[in-house]
């Protein structure tokens, strides 16, 4: 089944980066700190990304929603980081809306919690 997952190699590297960050920094820092650490991890692995990528939802020619995603990796994977103990439906909806707005297929929702890293892989 793992071979069938879209973008398996790059998503594995993203997830490994999150666990490396958690193992070094632990829990309880601000989200921006984890974002900076993730950018540093991506740089060291030569992962191509853009930070705080903008997306919009258009309905009948008007912008009806705006979204910023923490990272757009390799122009195809949206990555949203959270610092909290649970992943909420609103987080999943936020990421799914971003995927739809950019016509992307895969997103990763990564939470740094007091018990480790939680993640959810979202497919559009």
Structure characterization notes:
- The structure is a single chain.
- The chain is of the alpha+beta class.
- The protein has a single domain, classed as Lambda Exonuclease, Chain A (Alpha-Beta Complex), CATH 3.90.320.
- Helices cover 37% and strands 37% of the residues.
- It contains three helices and five strands; from the N terminus they run H-H-E-E-E-H-E-E.
- It has a five-stranded mixed sheet, with helices on both faces.
- Helix 1 packs across helix 2.
- The two termini are 18 Å apart.
Tell me the layout of helices and strands.
Blueprint: H1 8-25, H2 31-44, E1 49-59, E2 62-73, E3 77-83, H3 89-102, E4 106-113, E5 116-123
Parallel strand pairs: 3-4
Antiparallel strand pairs: 1-2, 2-3, 4-5
